[in-house]
Amino acid sequence: MKVLLTGASGQLGQALIASAPKGIELVATSRQQLDLADAEACRGAVEQHQPAWVLNAGAYTAVDKAESEPELAHAVNAGAPEAFARALAQQGGRLLQISTDYVFNGTQGTPYQPEQARDPLGVYGASKAAGETAVQTIFGAGGRGLVLRTSWVIGPVGKNFALTMLRLHSERDQLSVVADQVGCPTSTLNLAQACWQTLQIAGDRELPAVMHWSDAGAASWYDVAVAVGRIGAELGLISTPAEVHPITTADYPTSAERPAYALLDCTTTRAALDLNGEHWLKALRDVLQQAKAP
């Protein structure tokens, strides 16, 4: 099975490459090989490689910067999946679009179901929501276009909250971290497994058009920061954890508004993929064990 992967140099892309199952002919592209802001290039990649699947793990993920670069964010996060979907609809093949909890406004206080209406707060979420809409509009209910939403992605490589906190624990005595935003971290190691499982079983059974995948449990950013310090010290990655102080979102203003409650209900997806969720603390330990000391 030939798979065209985007975002190969990102943290999820690297995890997908490292865990690719036997029998996968992987065409891995980073920004240098395929500019996702160029819709014509995206269509051309499908025509050139004629993949059985496009696994679109690449994205514009600079949430705050997107507020000042809305055209670029929409070109990458909405234009690319639309271009892939149109080309695949003509050439044949299927699309797995990786999306985000930011398509929701985070105000309901209970886990979001895959079928709930999208209501993004900022440019980043709106651009990802538009990408989802394009995939669903072009492919309809035929099962050839699937959306997999995730949240708070962390991994042993790349730029993410866990590695940033690990570095700050090694550099500072005290940290202040937002405690009133709730969600769940998602290890790239587990997310990659869910992606590959989706591609491998989609031909044998009908999967939900929209799925949710995160690790299990719930946490605030403060909880994650404290856990990074504790686990980092246990693993010998840092000597002594910094003292972490909880603050509110209002204490740490950003250009883009974040969902206050971004928990995704993954029940139906875990059942559909025959995968059990791993608690985020265990997943975080696995991530840090594979990370290099700061």
CATH superfamily of the domain at 2-151 and 186-216 and 264-277: NAD(P)-binding Rossmann-like Domain
Unreliably modeled segments: none
Structural class: alpha/beta
Helix content: 25-40%
Give the number of DSSP strands: 12
Beta-strand portion reads 15-25%
The gyration radius over C-alpha positions equals 19 Å
Order of helices and strands: EHEHEHEHEEHEEEHEEHEHH
Name of the CATH class of the domain at 2-151 and 186-216 and 264-277: Alpha Beta
Structure annotation, total helices: 9
| CATH-assigned fold name of the domain at 2-151 and 186-216 and 264-277 | Rossmann fold
Order of strands across the main sheet: 2-1-3-4-5-10
Distance between the termini: 38 Å
Query: How many strands, which pairing sense, and closed or not: the largest β-sheet?
Result: 6 strands, parallel
Report the mean per-residue pLDDT as an integer.
96
CATH architecture of the domain at 2-151 and 186-216 and 264-277: 3-Layer(aba) Sandwich
Overall shape: it is globular
Keywords:
294 residues; alpha/beta; Rossmann fold; six-stranded parallel beta sheet; two-stranded parallel sheet; 12 strands
